Here is the input.
Amino acid sequence: MPHMQLQVIRKGALYTCECTRCRTSMYTHEFVNDDHNARRDAMAAGTLKCDDCPGHADKATYHEYPRPQYAARLSAPGFMDCTDWHYGPNARKLAAEVRDAYGVEQTRDARGRFVAGA
Ligand SMILES: [Zn+2]
Here is the structure.
């Protein structure tokens, strides 16, 4: 994945639950999801549709993170190409986790921003 850049979003409220059918974890983050409040309410009500299968949110697994969390992923500016979001309370550890997950080196561009090696 060439030209992938690490994208870290400031701390915000994070909610999660599992899909009733495929058990994939669903998330909604205050500063990642434009429809965050609607997604949160749909998770709590068990009506949020799964992205990966015909299932929906299992409200028995609905969970609010007690502390705000960062969100991070790799993305290619100008392209739709990006990884899944990862979440965590520590920005430095989260950035390392995302780089490790996709096997990219940590480098900085001319402005000192972290970028993923090609
Ligand atoms: Zn599912």
In short: The pocket of zinc ion is lined by residues 19, 21-22, 24, 50, 52-53, 55 (CB under 6 Å). Residues 91-102 form the longest helix (12 residues). The two ends are 7 Å apart (CA to CA).
